[in-house]
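Example record used in the benchmark description.
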Amino acid sequence: MAPESLSAREARRIALAAQGFADRRPAAPGKRHLLKTVERLGVIQIDSVNVVSRTHYLPFFSRLGAYPRPLLEEIAWGKRPALLEYWAHEASLLPLSAQPLLRWRMEDAREGVGVWKGVARFLRTHGDFVDKVLGEVARRGPMAASDLELGAKGQGGWWGWSEGKRALECLFWVGDLTTATRRGTFERVYGLPEKVLPRAVRDLPTPPRDEAQRELIRIAARAQGIATEQDLRDYFRMPVADAKARIVELVEAGELLSVAVRGWRQPAYLDPAARRPRKVAASALLSPFDNLIWFRERTERLFGVKVRLEIYTPAHKRTHGYYVLPFLQGETITARVDLKAERKAGVLAVQSAHAEPDANAETAERLAGELKLMAQWLGLERVEVRPKGDLARALTDALS
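Model output (structure tokens):
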């Protein structure tokens, strides 16, 4: 029997609905809506860049509108957190229920499997020092790397970690430590899992590796609606061979449906429960790390636009800017804006605004509405558009 054939537009609508963009925003977003969003997406990427807002705040804004930001801090890092922090897509927030599903990855890190060789090597070659660090956390309670007075100091930055920071991170990756909270400039505070995680989570049985991976693929499939093998694998950064095997098993069990999407070069897999809306009427500014667009090949396949992160590109070589948010209008990406929160001035600065081929007469007006909402949500007084990009003048007019 030939697989079902879907148009590219149908696939895009399925993907948008799975990600929450076919739903109407709630009038008063609260904690329940944030938790529902995490459950729906399965994972939220964390990043420390704060030029507009740290990225983990933005997927909720994109889907829910102007929710109270302290609510996310409460469910992620409060006294009774409802979320887990671990390496899932990249550094990520996840539902607490995902912790057992990632224990195989913690074990891979301990054994030095695949990309984790450096972690295992450090633990092996610095065993006594690592034990001392773990003992300090056990004795003193949750602590950040800056609180630790053991080991050689680093040079700062990502690649100049001190020995203490490396030890803490390696213990985090193997699951011997977890994130107790974040503080100050988003500094991770490490704690013992038995002191941080609820007992109900710690006592959950560890599923076999293949069972845990199947569940992660199920989550990825529900969150994406329709996806290629690469899409499913990338969502939780699964090993290639493992992902291939788990997808085959789920197809054989009828939990994933093989489909063909016209215009897609790769076979696709459909979540049998995926919604198939006839129309999606979203308006949303998307973090460059948003689940909908974080895998660039999928973004191009779904929307026909190339989204590239230019943070690490020299300024004179950037096409769209430093921290660029694509604008989802209806079912298409119609614009991109390079944003900066100038907090002292109370300004959300649009440093450039560019139209995409699918932009229409409504684009500037709808984008202006989202920018005003974002400024309000960030506690800024106004939006200012700088005269750069082919959409800048129309956007200025729409804002005025």
